[in-house]
Design a protein that fits this description.
By secondary structure, the protein is an alpha/beta fold. It contains 11 helices and 12 strands. The strands form 2 sheets. A 10-stranded mixed beta sheet has the order 2-1-3-12-11-4-5-10-8-9, with helices on both faces. Helix 1 crosses helix 9 and helix 1 packs across helix 10. Bound molecules: adenosine-5'-triphosphate (ATP).
Length: 370
């Protein structure tokens, strides 16, 4: 039994397109886990923002809704933006990118795991063991140049990549924490791989140097180094050998989608964006306007992102009941895939969004008992 009682406020931004649908179903799963585990209470408050809200109000998000995210214990986000709705400068509606910067969410945690019965394009049987984390730095790197790039006389274009010691140190510390947690839970190898291009660029050599300095203090873990091109090759050749991979923003942007392709695509790609104070949890995919409103979106990535939120809150606040619920939800999804009650449309199945949530809730008792 869990003795500690813990109450948490969650700012919920469903967003647009399938974000709204997968959020509704994920909230049902969270409520079921809370009822089944007990010992904690989540107060989820939804806030409007995104493309639909922009069409109504002329702003991406209200100041009050934005600040609600800052003041909440955690942020749960569906997906935001529609290609058909643009600001006058032609860019899409993206208040979550502002959250990433303002809330200092430098650590993008992207689990890559192959669930039972989900097909992988890899023929090797060892691919069934794919279970790794891509830790993508999310506030600097090449993306530090967003909005600052210049095209000179229609002749050449320039963007500047930024790596800071402060963020790289804390990013590496996050990687160390993840590797230790996975090792303790029995699903990690205690290995952190630094992915860079240190043989060519000073910025990546600096990234590697700072990584090594931090890793020197983690003698319980093994470390490896891979140039990004070799890492891409090995993610296809032998992804089961990786554990936690840490890298600059642009490299993480590309390799995390490549890795998602090994385990069923974007519907299977959860994400946590972590800073020193704040945590934002959202699937890595977008609003999928092509299937919005049809009830066929795969909520798996959103559900696992919500479970990651519970695990993060549990660790931050020393509240083990939330960790029980978080692990229970992940395990219930795994059971659903294993027993065939979860067969998402994007993976060639016929289980709709609500039916997948139903299947996860049905598997919760078994998952929590295990
Ligand atoms: P963004 O740039 O906002 O990430 P995008 O246009 O690159 O978005 P998505 O919105 O993620 O991409 O959609 C890409 C494709 O993947 C679409 O065909 C979409 O239907 C599919 N897709 C994405 N997420 C899901 C999901 N959860 N369930 C089913 N299909 C999905």
């Amino acid at each position: 039994m869990v003795a500690k009682n813990a109450n948490f406020t969650i700012a919920v931004y469903p967003g647009d397109g399938i974000g709204i649908e997968i959020m509704a179903e994920t909230r049902r799963v969270l409520a079921a886990a809370q009822a089944a585990v007990g010992g904690f209470a989540l107060e989820l408050t939804p806030y409007a923002c995104g493309a639909g809200y922009y069409q109504e109000s002329g702003e991406e998000i209200s100041d009050a809704s934005f600040e609600a995210g800052r003041n909440a214990d955690a942020i749960l986000l569906g997906a935001i933006g529609l290609p058909s709705v643009r600001k006058p400068d032609g860019t899409e509606i993206s208040p979550h990118l502002r959250m990433r910067q303002e809330f200092g969410l430098y650590a993008g945690v992207r689990p890559v795991k192959l669930y039972p019965n989900v097909k992988t394009p890899l023929a090797d049987a060892r691919a069934r063991n794919i279970d790794l984390i891509i830790l993508r730095e999310s506030t600097e790197g090449l993306f530090a140049s967003v909005g600052k790039g210049e095209v000179i006389d229609d002749r050449e274009a320039r963007e500047t990549l930024v790596i800071t010691r402060s963020v790289t140190e804390r990013l590496t510390d996050q990687a160390i924490g993840l590797a230790r947690g996975r090792k303790a839970a029995g699903n990690g190898k205690g290995l952190v791989t630094c992915v860079d291009k240190a043989n060519v660029f000073a910025a990546y050599a600096f990234f590697r140097k700072v990584f090594n300095e931090r890793m020197d203090k983690a003698s319980d873990l093994a470390r490896a180094h891979a140039y990004v091109d070799a890492a891409a090759l090995d993610l296809v050749r032998k992804p089961w050998e990786f554990d936690v991979m840490v890298m600059e923003n642009m490299f993480g942007d590309i390799l995390s989608d490549l890795a998602a392709g090994l385990v069923g695509g974007m519907g299977m790609a959860p994400c946590a964006e972590i800073g020193d104070e704040h945590g934002l949890f959202q699937p890595a995919h977008g609003t999928a306007p092509d299937i919005a409103g049809m009830g066929i979106a795969n909520p798996s990535a959103m559900i696992v992102s919500a479970a990651m939120m519970l695990n993060w809150l549990a660790e931050k606040h020393d509240a083990p009941a939330l960790a029980d619920a978080g692990r229970g939800i992940e395990r219930a999804l795994e059971i659903g895939f294993a027993n065939g009650s979860v067969r998402p449309y994007d993976l060639g199945g016929d289980t709709g969004t609500a039916a997948i949530a139903d299947a996860v809730m049905a598997a919760l008792p078994e998952a929590l008992g295990a």
